[in-house]
User: Which sequence fits this backbone?
């Protein structure tokens, strides 16, 4: 009789803990885990052709599933390749069971070429790092990793799995799966209502609502929370906003309007200038993405006071309910957005505004928008307010190449919903391998590539940092027009049908055609 | 009067120290460096559309130029994206001046989204890490980084450049470039002849040559060294080999035959079994790439003795000359390989052997072969021995996605020489963005993609680790055939002309056509 291997036990433990999707790019040291997939069954494995697809997909998955997926990465270099999207996932407070293979203990002593300091790399992007020491520890270690990833907020839990631990058989008496404590569903934040500064918050909202802003982040941008925010706004007349970056904003018609703070420093300063009190609901104090020589890093007015209603550890819904209660706003109707899209142009040239309007007019019910249209999409927030109800996911860590992998993960987490990935051509080239995974899994993803053939944002940034007008050499570092990239050709070469659109009418038609069909489609939006 | 910015000073310092190529993917925090490129001039900047292209190109550049290039990476995530090819470069002992932007000191306090622990990431792949503290330090810091990178062996010298250091102007009195000590040319190893175990080496070669192997690594695989190894072999009858992985092997007709140790454990064990003494010339004790449950990690026979003629810190040529002298072999003629290629088939099916033969028969003089054909290319070493003289570069760190970026760097380091990149479809997908840089720079690179539509090596590895025959789920983690990737389409979409070849005749014709034209060309070799 043969017993389970450590790898088989790990797959069992993951499944026992409701982790049943694994984004993977395995190598030799992970072959026993791969073999275990056959024996154990039930784990959905999705192959990415680069680890940044794997980790970005796990981020998108968590945001929509409210529970972690596992990853499977090959040693230090495999982890290294996945780091930047793990960085993004960490900043989004996504939970991931991040499994990284390693050499056997004996082989590590030999300093083979692939040897590297996995723990040091993992530590930069993980809240929890642990190396399994033996097959008999795997059930406990795996369950602990899931528990960490499922916390509130979510966490990157990196479990390092040496090859010899994976291939060793468990002793007979240890072969039963340890029944780990079932993790709390991550959808339900574990903490009690924070209400850290409740009395002062109530006072500010009652006495000076005009200069008080409610700033929502993390889970407070879900509809169950924004509806409460809407009541508070109705009761007091205060303002409300979401952070610029958001793991998942539930928005659109029938919901409360909650515009995001803008990316650029000047408009953020203008918006925030009048507020003397900012109430943080899962949000952080707003700061600029980058430093500029002549601009402040803090976006609020000097002397602005911050009051914390809830942190990401808390349940924002409970905190907002308590605040509603204190304000007598429980039964007030919030102002809900009407659905109207009559302002979308039927034809004309493509620009940021016309694209945003068409997007808002055509978005299907319950779409999931994954937004990395850093330049072109700057105005989409307001232009899509009245679209059909949808979720809006943005990169949270600023590392580009987020949207296409996250779209893969979101589509797997939410079958039956259309995912719309808004992507720049510069960012898209970071993780174009994602298209292959979309084709392989026949995911319902509409990809819009905004082909402006430049790192559009950097032209503005070069000016913003006061570096002057770019000459030929500097231009060469910003522009992608030599040679031009044929995004339709790239997509079709990876099995994704594609179409080039050069005006509003064809964009609108192509969008609607993509929404009707099963599987992915790429629209190359020629700007 | 305005003074130089820190960024301008850094560009000056790099140029003063003969670092005149910069592989880059800059972001906002690097915009002053980008602006400085216009003002200072003379720096050749090559844009990569993902940082793994940037760092891999710097590796390939160093191997052919024998001096470092600079990189320019955007904060922690930009560095993270480049880490796996920095890992490869470190294992190849390549020197790189690795410049990573960071937020300004003030902005770091705000914990903006892109903030991460750059030092921790850099430390894993760098021999030297330093953060510039002010613009007035930049000249010294930059010169020190170059000096570190130019050491013997080469080193990854990471210089972290905060945005405020880059944008600050130097004080008037500090604006002159510090004249740093010119680094030694890296082509000339700095150390004296090592000759660590000279007496015992001479004794072994004289008394038991049949059981003595000279194992060459690092710079000992250059022609000036292999010609000396050939004399020692002629004088004593000992055996000689190169390590499996090699930064740069100068080989082919007119040179000494120096076969590499094979990748797989069993044939390596068979080759090494008879040797009781291995003489290391810049090489390490040979170990398996991976651990396997039932195979040894050390590839030499138990009790094998290792004697060190030179380490990578030493000059192998001096050490080998001294050894020749001790053996009276100075003027013995080494056996040189004749040029013959009559055994190349003119037509027939494509397989590993026929491809290798055609490659050997057609390779132009002084070609640079960058080899990451992990499955298909397993036999190319022997099949190309008699080709025209050429350099052969392999990945040294085992992280896949090495060849295409390294080909970019090699082509820039060695204009006028044809670069031939041998790449698997699995590995190629890791860094396919390299094709765009090849087109942009019109580099003379012939890319062969061996399209077997699988991670071919992993099928063997799955069996080798004893994980059994793969079922459907495991197969899905190894195979790239759903959907098939159209590599010709990918290449053409990024501006690289491409052709599919399905038999030997068309392969041979396409190879020769690519060698005659200027600029890159991709051959999709359908297996």
Assistant:
């Amino acid at each position: 009789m043969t017993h389970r291997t450590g790898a088989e036990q790990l797959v069992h433990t993951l499944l026992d803990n409701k982790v049943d999707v694994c984004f993977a790019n395995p190598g030799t040291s992970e072959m026993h885990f791969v073999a275990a997939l056959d024996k154990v069954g039930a784990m959905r494995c999705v192959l990415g052709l680069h680890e940044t697809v794997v980790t970005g997909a796990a981020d998108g998955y968590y945001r929509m599933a409210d529970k972690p997926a596992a990853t499977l990465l090959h040693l230090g270099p495999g982890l290294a390749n996945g780091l930047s999207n793990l960085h993004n996932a960490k900043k989004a407070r996504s939970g991931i069971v991040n499994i990284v293979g390693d050499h056997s203990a004996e082989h590590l002593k030999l300093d083979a070429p692939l040897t590297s300091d996995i723990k040091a790399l993992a530590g930069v992007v993980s809240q929890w790092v642990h190396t399994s020491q033996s097959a008999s520890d795997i059930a406990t270690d795996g369950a602990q990793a899931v528990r960490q990833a499922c916390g509130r907020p979510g966490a990157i839990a990196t479990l390092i799995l040496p090859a010899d631990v994976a291939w060793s058989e468990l002793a007979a008496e240890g072969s039963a799966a340890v029944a780990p404590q079932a993790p709390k569903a991550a959808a339900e934040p574990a903490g009690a209502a924070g209400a850290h500064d409740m009395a002062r918050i109530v006072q500010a909202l009652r006495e000076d609502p005009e200069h008080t802003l409610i700033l929502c982040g993390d889970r407070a941008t879900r509809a169950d929370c924004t509806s409460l925010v809407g009541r508070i706004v109705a009761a007091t007349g205060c303002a409300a906003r979401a952070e610029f970056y958001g793991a998942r904003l539930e928005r659109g018609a029938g919901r409360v309007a909650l515009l995001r703070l803008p990316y650029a420093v000047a408009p953020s300063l203008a918006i925030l200038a009048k507020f003397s009190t900012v109430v943080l609901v899962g949000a952080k104090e707003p700061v600029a993405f980058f430093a500029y020589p002549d601009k402040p890093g803090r976006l609020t007015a000097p002397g602005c006071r911050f009051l914390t209603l809830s942190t990401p550890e808390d349940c924002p819904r409970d905190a907002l309910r308590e605040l509603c209660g204190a304000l007598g706003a429980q039964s007030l109707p919030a102002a809900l957005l009407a659905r109207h899209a009559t302002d979308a142009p039927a034809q004309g040239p493509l620009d940021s505004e016309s694209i945003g309007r068409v997007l808002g007019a055509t978005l299907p019910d319950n779409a999931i928008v994954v937004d990395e249209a850093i330049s072109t999409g700057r105005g989409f927030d307001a232009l899509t307010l009245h679209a059909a109800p949808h979720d809006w996911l943005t990169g949270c860590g600023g590392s580009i190449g987020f949207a296409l992998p996250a779209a893969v993960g979101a589509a797997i987490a939410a079958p039956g919903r259309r995912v719309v990935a808004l992507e720049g051509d510069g960012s898209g080239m970071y993780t174009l391998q994602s298209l292959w995974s979309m084709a392989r899994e026949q995911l319902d993803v509409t990809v819009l590539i905004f082909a402006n053939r430049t790192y559009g944002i950097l032209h503005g940034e070069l000016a913003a940092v006061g570096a002057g007008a770019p000459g030929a050499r500097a231009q060469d570092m910003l522009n992608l027009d030599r040679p031009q990239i044929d995004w339709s050709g790239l997509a079709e070469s990876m099995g994704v049908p594609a179409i080039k659109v050069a005006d509003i009418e064809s964009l609108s038609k192509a969008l609607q055609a993509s929404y009707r069909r099963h599987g992915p489609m790429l629209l190359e939006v020629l700007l």
Q: What stands out?
A: Chain A touches chain B through 103 residues (CB under 8 Å). Chain A is about 40% helix and 15% strand. Residues 75-91 of chain A form the longest helix (17 residues). Confidence is low (pLDDT under 50) at residues 173-180 of chain A.
